[in-house]
Amino acid sequence: MRKKLFAANWKMNLGPVQARELVRAIRAQLDPQFATLGKEREVMIAPPAILIPAVQQELAGAAIALGAQNMHFEDQGAFTGEISAPMLKAYGVTHVILGHSERRHIFGETDELINKKVKSALRHDLIPVLCVGETLAQREAGDTTQVLTNQLLGGLAELESHQIAKVTIAYEPVWAIGTGKTATPEQAQREHGALRATLIERAGRAVAHGVRILYGGSVTAENVDSLVSRPDIDGALVGGASLKADSFVRIVRALTV
Ligand code: PGA
What is the DSSP letter of 64? Predict the structure, then answer.
């Protein structure tokens, strides 16, 4: 069975003091439960890159993984302002969100670029969380499936099945991110099912059934249960609601309370 993953994407929010306080508040609630909760689910926090060292310190001894929100595909060199996989690894990072829609739409990231980043992550033993999602215009034009298929196959281009087995996918409809509009559980399950069908064709049934597909886009403490109870929704990637300990902890406890 796929272990559910609940991931916080803090985006460009919080300073070092607030970040430390938030991690402490999350740990105060989750640490005592991890003996039981940790068997069936994983938790990851992706702070802004500059806060990674502070968050790493606060996470010492916790059963919570540290993630990054982005990275460059080269290991080092003249890439002003960029951060590489080996740098992230040096601070205990284990996961990296790649191809988030804000990276695609605001910073012009293409499937080709994202694919290079996915390959770099795998080369360095980081778990890529590859994000895919359609815009409202694409959905209304009836292009959702094609867009998702292209982004998925583009992000996974040239990977062997055993490498695809190490990737986590996040379906995040662009129209649902930060808007308060969530895909209905039925809508989300339909797209997750279609993504898994594409994965089956691309990497075979065994691999595809092991790959986690998270849902993201206005996930809250109120709607998380109905989403992650669907068969192909293997957790959540949470933006706004991950910035408060109570709501994020409630999301991590989905279906158990
Ligand atoms: P949101 O963001 O939960 O604030 O909609 C999710 C994401 O972009 O990962």
Answer: -
